[in-house]
Amino acid sequence: MTRMVTYANRAEVEAALAGLPRTVDPAFPQGIREVIDRTRNAERVFRRICDDSSVAADIRFAALYAVLLRLRREERLTDYVALASRYEGEFGSQPYFHTFRAVILRLEGDLASLLQAIEHSREAARLLPEVAGVQHQVAELITEYLEHQESLPRPGAVEEAEGLVDRAIALTYGRVAHYFETKARILCLRNDFATARSLVRRAIELEPKQGQDYLRRVSQYQTTRVKIDVFAQRADFMRTQDQFRREMGEFKTQQLELLGLLAGVVAFVASTANIASQATGSAGVRLITAMAGALIVVFSSFFLMSGGRDWRRGMLAASLGLLLLVVGLLAPTWLVHRP
Question: Per its UniProt entry, which superkingdom is the organism in (predicted)?
Answer without folding.
Answer: Bacteria
